[in-house]
């Protein structure tokens, strides 16, 4: 695990995938590398979702525990290691929000906008590799549903936040996510 510095585009993903393989074998150096590379960004996302540092730190900690436990289930053919790890973070944060009745913690939508220029859902799709199965499947969704999925899973928006952002009823936002996930699951298999 001494030569884990990326040298070319995409090497960072290879490095993180290798770190996950180390975790799956019980090698702590893999978890340390993942933590060093991902923890700062994860903390930022968790803070935007939870709006409290103590909760964000708790969620990031729990996320790395889950990454350690589930590293063997990561499949590089299904996506990038960062996407996999941030999906765990998002689910952990949402579980905390649901479980403790803290859905009101994220009141304004602008607070969770990313600092980067890639806020546009279509830009996020374009960032995926042309050959990516996920991109092909996302391209099959209606634009509004694709935007809802991307905002939910890449920006951490809840159903309520999606409804407000997209100007649709809560039930519609939930249905879009549920149906789109079924469509994506079917497409990916």
Please describe what this structure looks like.
- The protein is an all-alpha fold.
- The protein has 2 domains: 1-103, Rna Polymerase Sigma Factor, Chain: A, CATH 1.10.1740.10; 117-189, Orthogonal Bundle (Arc Repressor Mutant, subunit A), CATH 1.10.10.
- The chain has 9 helices and no strands.
- The chain has helices spanning 11-24, 28-50, 53-70, 81-99, 121-127, 133-140, 143-155, 159-166, 170-188.
- The protein is globular.
- One of its GO terms (biological process) is DNA-templated transcription initiation.
- Residues 34-102 form the RNA polymerase sigma-70 region domain.
- It comes from Ancylobacter rudongensis.
- GO terms for molecular function: DNA binding; sigma factor activity.
- Belongs to the sigma-70 factor family. ECF subfamily.
How would you characterize the largest beta sheet?
Answer: none
CATH secondary-structure class of the largest domain: Mainly Alpha
Count of distinct strands: 0
Q: What would you call the shape?
A: globular
Question: So, the CATH homologous superfamily of the largest domain?
Answer: RNA polymerase sigma factor, region 2, helix turn helix motif
Taking the alpha carbons of the first and last residues, their distance comes to 33 Å
Feature tags:
189 residues; mainly alpha; Rna Polymerase Sigma Factor, Chain: A; 9 helices; disordered N terminus
SSE diagram, text form:
Layout: H1 11-24, H2 28-50, H3 53-70, H4 81-99, H5 121-127, H6 133-140, H7 143-155, H8 159-166, H9 170-188
Helix pairs in contact: 1-2, 2-3, 2-4, 3-4, 5-7, 6-9, 7-9, 8-9
